[in-house]
Amino acid sequence: MSFNKKHPELLEGEAFLMNTASLERAEEFQLKFKTVRMGDISYNTKGNICKGLKPFFISKQEIKDRGVPDNCEWSKMIGILFNREYLKQTKRGWM
Question: Could you state, in order of their start, the residue ranges of all structural domains in the chain?
Fold first, then answer.
């Protein structure tokens, strides 16, 4: 299980979206998602702090409303929330 499923800043009813260092990406999240929230400290999947990154969270209800099935793997959730074209454009995927 990824550490980010139990991220210390995760609020009830939220899911971890991703970590990013890009201010452009952060602005994009805020335009694309109604419930996105930026946290303070990013962690990798093992719980180690990732300097220079910020975590983003989104409500589980918005995830469901966007057609993501319950208990969907994180990578599949990202593929649904962000269309495949978006992932191709980033070249690095979703990190």
Answer: 3-90
Give residue-wise pLDDT tens across range 24-81.
Answer: 888 888 888 999 999 999 998 888 999 999 999 999 999 999 888 888 888 888 888 8
* Rounded distance between C-alpha atoms, residue 90 and residue 95, angstroms: 9
Q: Which residue has the tokens 């690095």?
A: 92
Question: What is the value of pTM for the model shown?
Answer: 0.80
Q: Residue 21's CB: how many other CB atoms inside 10 A? A: 13
Helices (H), 1-95: 23-32, 60-65, 74-81, 84-90
Amino acid found at 67: G
User: 34 — phi, psi (to 5°)?
Assistant: -75, -35
